[in-house]
Amino acid sequence: MNKINLSFFLRHFYRDLRAGNLTLVLLSLVIAISSISCISFLSDRVKQSLNKDIQASLGADRRISSDRPLNEEFIDSAEKLGLKSAKGVRFPSMVFYENTSKLVSLKAISSEYPLKGQLEIETFSGLEVNPKLSNDSVWIDSSLMNQLNVNLNDYIFVGNKKFKISGTVKYEPDRGINFVNFAPRVFISMKALEQTGLIQDGSRVTYRLWLSSENEEVLKKFDQLILTKLQPGQKIDTISNARPDLNEALSKANSFLSLIGMITILMSAVAIALASRQLANSQKDSVALMQALGCNYKTLRNISFFELSMVLAVGFFLGCFFGYLIQLILGWFLIEFSDINLPHLSLPSLWVFLQAFVIAVLLVITFSWPILHKTFKSNPFFTLRFEKAKLLNFRFFKNENVFYLIFLIFSMLLMLFVTTKNLILALIVGAGFILMAVIFFLICLLFFKVISFINISCRKTQFNKFQFVWLNFIRATKRRGLSISAQIVGLGLSISALSVSAFIQNDLVRAWENLLPDDAPNNFVINIQQDQKKEFVNFLSSYNIEDVTLYPMVKGRLIKKNDIEILPQNFELISTRRLLNREINLSYGIKIPSHNQIIDGDELNPDALEVSVEKGYAKNFDIQVGDYLGFDIAGEILTVKVTSIRNLKWESMEVNFFMFLSQAALIEKPQSAITAFYLNSEEKILNSEFSDFNKTNSYSQFKSDLLNKFSNLTIVDTDLIAKQVRRLISQSVFAVQFLFLFCLLSGCMVLWTSLSSSREERIREIAIYRSLGATKYQLALSQWFELCIVGFLTGFIATFMAQFLAIVIANYAFQLSMNFNFASLFLGGFTGAFFSLASGTLALKGVLSTPAIKILRET
How far is residue 520's CA from residue 503's CA, in Å, rounded to a whole number? Predict the structure, then answer.
């Protein structure tokens, strides 16, 4: 491209931009790119926040656990790569104080622990974060202080060694909620472990190695080195597998944010197509004149290509800029006006910009270029000879070849997939909107046929004072059939998109809030014996803790499926082998707990030998409804039939079991009970007969009273874990509601472009009517009537179809149940009428006030 051509192209682009011909195309592109880049930036920040929580829950970036002493090769590999490391050992043991002994979970740590997160220890000096533990000191849980009736600076025995209690554990970053961790914690140093003499041959010990690095690439290299060297009984915990509850919540949040991005992109695509059509019609005379003066096809194509390339470049950079700016505003708002704290986005991911650029290119080459390309392929003689009011008539379904239609569908699905990275969601949304576009097009044809029939019938009828308004609307459908069709399709898809996102947003937010309400269980109590149940429930009632469900718990190990022995060595995954190598907790009841959802099969028969299996567990072992499972329970074999597969919400903090059996199967087996309940740790608890009147009746005192009354019980506070999930939900809900504004902006752009495209033709019509004696009031009433009737019908039908699509998306993409709401149909109709009238009034502003003589002279 030489300097003369470049200068000419730039002048042509600047002229069209200043004239406003490219404004709507550019604005639609900026809104689409702003939406997807903002969502990506925000998702990165939420993911960084979540990763910090998960790193804290690991105590590092990586954690290796082993049932045998760790291979020095692991440590050597970490040192060569420059990783920070800490060592630890964990196992159950007994501690002694005077004549009292307690079973505890002993944890020996090196001085570097923890590498991530905070270990909070309460000492005589106050609360200390990540202090160093001396060889002659221990830190113990506050609950153990009450059970042993000891104080700081008292001495206890751990094995052969005497230790001084120098602090109590307030928070341990990687404690977790596994049952093995339910015993009170005691910390000693690694150097003191050998002096205790506790580790002998055959001891059940878990060895741990914590590793961290600020360089993610180094961590990935370490993963590649170690994964091939892990032996049975060894595993590596990472951010992705350490907290499945948080990762599942984040996955759903990202999916819905991506859904908003997809809907915004779809509406922007419609707006870009309509704006490009308007641009083509505004350029048709100048293009024909240039053709008549000798400008060839190649030059015209290059001009159009250059303009769209400039629009693409400007739209991409402005979209990314505004997307980054909006997520900064959203992050600031979250930090300033809520208890949500998002980390600063250090360096934006290259994927965000690549994703935005690919979507921008697909939007332009799919929805703008084919329309403009048709302009300079038209016959200049035809364009200059026929009346100027005749608009370019693009009949995609009639004249365009099959290749373009396939390309359009493929490009749209590719855009949706790049946006969400979820193939199922992309296919559902894409197929749903393609189907809706076809339905709206068919509705337009039917609508025009009905209008023609009404027009014939009304010729023989006497009309009231609205005769002109009605006849003008009927004539408008004939004169501007394509324009009104575009308006109906564009408005219909916009309202459908807004309705889909609104319906799913409401149900998703409601489901999230119900998933983890403020009173979600935050305390687990285990080892409740049969003869303690009644007294335990009474104890909780005295503290105003009601409606507590006690779940029986029986230890068992899965050994057979359909009379075939299940062997750990037959499975590749270490996690699957581990499930077979240890006993799992079985429970039973008359019916499956209400917070479980049966996805396949039927409810349990309490009098038969039946079992319901958790979905993930069933998938690991290929268990189907109708299979027979064999369990080893205290040396006895129990065979039961699988009658259902259940879906569990692990993040709900309720008591859940992999296996839930019928009452007849386990009622006679040795068992204890477990329960979960909510207790506000920040408020005083009402006075109880079990409490010492002179003591502060707080949450700590409640635990002390409980353990004094039932010394065999173990109580575990999961409030921190619940707060992590609740904080993620709060971030997601706020982001969903905030980013819904992008959908509204895109919808307004569609309405604006669909109405602006008929502005010139409307001005000419009004000029002719004014010259024939029509009043301004009649013309305004006619315009309002057209906008309202098209808006109401479109909104009504769009809401009807949107609910079906929303139900499909909710069921298959988010596992939510939705019901059809008939009342929303009329709300959608009136909303469509309102938006159509409001946008039409703004887009057609000045049409009625333009002098008729001026228009007629220019025509």
Answer: 26
Same-domain pairing of 430 and 508: yes
H-assigned helices in 697-822: 699-709, 719-756, 759-771, 776-813
Same domain, 657 and 745: no
Residue 373 lies in a domain: yes
Cis peptide preceding 232, ω within 30 of 0: no
Q: How confident is the model at residue 744 (pLDDT cuts 50, 70, 90)?
A: low
Sign of CA dihedral 194, 199, 200, 206: negative
CA atoms within 13 A on the CB side of 419: 36
Q: CA 312, CA 711: separation in Å to the nearest integer? A: 71
Helix axes 423-458, 776-813, angle to 10 degrees: 150
- Look at residue 468 and tell me whether its pLDDT is greater than 90: no
Same domain, 826 and 746: yes
Residue 472 located in a structural domain: yes
746-764 pLDDT, tens per residue? 666 776 776 666 666 677 7
Kindly write down the DSSP assignment for every residue of 33-44, as one continuous string: HHHHHHHHHHHH
Cβ pair 563, 630 in contact under 8 A: yes
For all residues of the chain together, what is the average pLDDT? 76
| Averaged pLDDT, 177-194 | 74
**Is 55 part of any domain?**
no
Confidence at 685, pLDDT banded by 50, 70, 90: very low
pLDDT per position as a tens digit, 46-102: 667 666 766 777 788 888 888 788 877 888 888 888 889 899 998 888 888 888 888
Instruction: Using CB atoms within 10 Å of the CB of residue 425, give its burial: 0 to 12 exposed, 13 to 18 middle, 19+ buried.
Output: buried
498 and 387 belong to one structural domain: yes
Name the percent of the chain lying above pLDDT 70.
Answer: 70
CB atoms within 10 A of CB 277: 26
- The b-or-e profile of 781-810 (16+ CB within 10 A means b, else e) is bbbebbbbebbbbbbbbbbbbbbebbbbbb
Q: How far is CA 129 from CA 133, 145, 167, 174, in A?
A: 12, 20, 12, 15
Distance from C-alpha of 786 to C-alpha of 75, rounded to nearest angstrom? 76
Please identify, among 677, 696, 713, the residue that sits at the C-terminal boundary of a domain: 677
Domain boundary among 647, 677, 707: 677
- Residue 775 backbone zone (phi > 0: left; psi -120 to 50: alpha; other: beta): beta
Q: Do 268 and 389 have their domain in common? A: yes
Is 520 part of any domain? Answer: no
Let me know whether 331 and 361 are in one domain. Answer: yes
Please tell me whether residues 268 and 383 are part of one structural domain: yes
**Whole-number pLDDT of residue 226:** 79
How many domains does the chain contain in total?
Answer: 3
Q: Name the residue type at position 769.
A: Y
- How far apart CA 851 and CA 579 sit, in angstroms, is 83
Which tokens belong to 326?
A: 């909006």
CA 551 to CA 661: how far, in whole Å? Answer: 12
Asked if 16 and 69 sit in the same domain, the reply is no
pTM for the full predicted model: 0.63
Is the per-residue pLDDT at 641 higher than 90?
Answer: yes
For residue 241 the two structure tokens come to 């597998």
Instruction: Please say if the pLDDT value at position 346 is more than 70.
Output: no
Domain that holds residue 650: 546-677
Q: How far is CA 311 from CA 21, 27, 229, 369, 416, in A?
A: 11, 10, 53, 12, 21
